[in-house]
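input
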Amino acid sequence: MMMITELQAQQNCDSLKKEVPAFCKLLDDDARLEFPKDYVKIAACMNIDSVTETLLGYDMVKMKALQLQREKNRVFTYGDWMDMVVELKAGKEYRNAVQMMQLIQHSINRADWAQLLRLMKESLLPGHLEALELDKVEKMLFDPKNKGRKFIEVMEQIK
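output
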């Protein structure tokens, strides 16, 4: 029974690769309104977690769509998007982001903070690191009033 269900799901995903949904016409302003509906449709076929959703945002998809339009004179399809998700999940940036998401759920401690810093330095551009003002963040995290709290609880206040 499980194999039949998996086979049907795979066939549905394969059929999506042939579709050209509304969000694929990313030059239109209306694409943003159509995107969530289409995203749910493809997410049902693929394991799209919060990290993938964050890293593979609208602007990245739009850049790829424009590149395909310019270089290959064709629109961006579900198949292209599926390929982007597979490629993204195989990359170091994704693995680092998953580790960071897990670490920020922990209670504040120096070892996890050191690991978060290492992952951020591997994943982010120097300009983005500077903008985060990590010295201020560290000071806030390790303030005695935040003892026993999780990284995420304190970081949400920083915004």
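quick obs: The two ends are 48 Å apart (CA to CA).
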